[in-house]
Fold this sequence. Notes:
379 residues; Rossmann fold; seven-stranded mixed sheet; three-stranded antiparallel sheet
Amino acid sequence: MQVIRTLFIALVALSVSVGALAQVQAARGKATVTYKGKSAPADAKVQALSKAQLKAVEMYYAEAGETEAANFDAVRDKILADPDRYILDSTVLAEEDNPSTQQYTVAVKVSLNVANLRNAVKANSAVAKAGRAERSPLAFLVVSRQVDSVKSFDDRVYKKAEVKQEYAQADSASAQSNEGEKVRKGQVATNASRSSQSKSSMSETQSIETGGSTTRKAAESTWRLIPSANLNQIFTATFSKAGYKVSEAALIEPYTNGQFKLATVEDDYRAGNDLKPATLASVVQGMRTAKIPFVALGTLDVNLADEDPATGMRRVAVTVNAKVLDISQSIPDTIASVGPVQYAGVGASDDEARTNALKLAANNAARDLSAQLTNIGMR
């Protein structure tokens, strides 16, 4: 029992440490500089090291995705001006001095302070430079759900057979008869003979051609919504840290003159993956009435739990689909989107794994959306 308790405490500590280290990421970079002389001077080595470290930062942004990569230009000068603020440590992996080509190459591995990098991007964004009164309100309506029931259909099979038959028949008949009579000494003798012959033949040819089709119908799923108060806090905190004025859709509903109803949106998400046109129109009209120009819509779909092969703990995957609509125009426009992308969480129980997965998915989705809004200069 003591061993199980110790193992559980260790796993909890590991999960906490992983969460803390999420703000520190390792990256590698490589750079080459040209020099004059018989060997690389000290200033050339310093220059190559600085370039390799910058390449490592660029590599981190490239691997983080298109949205994050667009932010690299915003922080390049800040990294060059104060590298120690963003690079916690740097290790030289390999170096090569080639006098014949007068080139010096160095490869490094660095630990990046991701929190400071993100803060630098936010500080340079349009929304951060704008006053609070100039910032546009943003409403978000993101629900988390799990499959409640699945209705499947048997295959519908249609078979068709075409039968062709051909007959051929030939008949022939012949008949022959002879009759005679003789008179002899007052007596009459008669004789008769008759013969007949018939012949009949028939042939039949039959051919069968078969075909058909099989119709398969996709399964229909219904969903149950999962209480998402914690997710609301995550989305609110992430957008607020980015500088946006964000509000939950439930808080805006009373100011829409009854045009927007949260319950209607939830009913649509229980029945399928998309909002009905009438529901989407009510969201747009309601938010316009409340003078909210931007709306974030999305779902976090929770898969069934299974065993994590690496730890033996319970594992749950969550699929994220979300987008931000600009409804200030006559025709709403999607200005940011994320997904479908999947995140997984582990825990001692199904509930714990599901909670960890939802938090991870919500955090990353909100961060990705806010980064895209920053890239387009939204205030």
